[in-house]
Amino acid sequence: MEVYRDAELRGRLEGTGLVLPGVEVEEIAGGAVLYLEDIVGRAGTEFTLEDHAALARACGRWQARPAVVRPWTSVGFLRDYSTTREVPWELLDDDAAWRQPLVADNWPAGLRDGWQRLVAHRDELLTIVEQSPRAGCHLDLWVCNAIRRPDGEIALLDWAFCGDGALGEDLGNYIPDAVFDLFWPAERLPELAETCVSSYLEGLREGGWRGDPDVVRRAVMASAVKYAWLLPGLLGQASRSSHKAYHQQADSQHLFQQRGLALSFLAEWCAEALKG
Predict the structure, then answer these.
(1) pLDDT per position as a tens digit, 27-58
(2) 260, 231, 245, 262: which is closest to 106 by C-alpha?
(3) Distance between CA 91 and CA 146 in Å, rounded?
(4) Domains, the chain, ranges and CATH?
(5) Does residue 215 contact residue 166 with C-beta atoms inside 8 Å?
(6) Among 37, 38, 113, 209, which is most buried by a count of CB atoms within 10 Å?
(7) Is there a contact between 97 and 112 (Cβ–Cβ < 8 Å)?
(8) Which residue in 123, 113, 109, 106 sits closest to 234, CA to CA?
(9) Is pLDDT above 70 for 1?
């Protein structure tokens, strides 16, 4: 609730291309009810490459501005999210799990080794992100939390996790999530990633940031460690008769093929980040 009442955050977003929806708050016993503005426009799940670029550029303009610390904003979100989940890590070394048809028939060669390296260096990757230049971040930036108005401005929803993050950390969530939930084809993930990162860097420069762009690119790549849990989780689900993507029934073959490509891409991202 506090984020929607924060006039300073609204002011920092002004002119960036991002907007915080208007809200009315009804206080009730033990809490409050929020009535958000009805945003009309193109949903993020239907974004074109140009829309994705616009969001990334606007995000760069916003995050080029100094972050505002509030008592209610999050700190250490990435490490908390990445290290507190129940994960069947043992499946990474389970040959039978990797022989399951959905896995063996759809995942790229080399993914097993690549993901084992990612997990082995998980703490190092988290440290790279934590030591990167800081920014005020949304921390749940993905297509289902974005709507582009007809005037071009993009409204961002669901600010529950917002707080301290690294420059580029929001992109490390936004880019792969679009593929994981089947809102963007995995075959075009490299194109989406380069477009978004380049646009974000343009936005940072437009906002007055003059740091090293390679440091930001490295933080984007390293932040993919957030998904270290996903591959072993999928290994544990591969024997199921049906699967869902973002609560919607999905074709299992297509889902595992798309996620396999995306996971392979993230393994390469993290390997590149570790090189420095």
Answers:
(1) 888 888 889 899 999 999 999 999 999 999 99
(2) 260
(3) 35
(4) 42-275 (3.90.1200)
(5) no
(6) 209
(7) no
(8) 106
(9) no
18-19/163-166 β-pairing: unpaired
Angle between helices 252-275 and 111-120 (to 10 degrees): 50
Q: What is the end-to-end Cα distance of the chain in Å, rounded? A: 39
* 27-41, 169-183, 211-225, range with the lowest pLDDT: 27-41
- The span from the CA of 113 to the CA of 7, in Å, is 48
User: Whose structure tokens read 């616009």?
Assistant: 54
Helix H or strand E segment including 60: helix 49-63
| DSSP state, residue 111 | H
Question: What is the residue-averaged pLDDT of the chain?
Answer: 95
What type of residue is 84? Answer: T
Give tens-digit pLDDT for 98-137.
999 999 999 999 999 999 999 999 999 999 999 999 999 9
Q: Which amino acid is at 174?
A: Y
d(CA 168, CA 215): 9
In the chain, the percentage of residues whose pLDDT exceeds 70 is 100
Q: Please give the structure tokens belonging to residue 226.
A: 């957030």
pLDDT at 71: 85
Q: What's the angle, vertex CA 185, arms to CA 168 and CA 104, rounded to 5?
A: 105
The pTM score is 0.95
Question: Amino acid letter at 91?
Answer: L
Single-letter code of the amino acid located at 81 = Y
Name every residue whose Cβ is closer than 8 Å to that of residue 204 and which is 6 or more positions away in sequence.
Answer: 60, 61, 63, 64, 167, 211, 213, 216
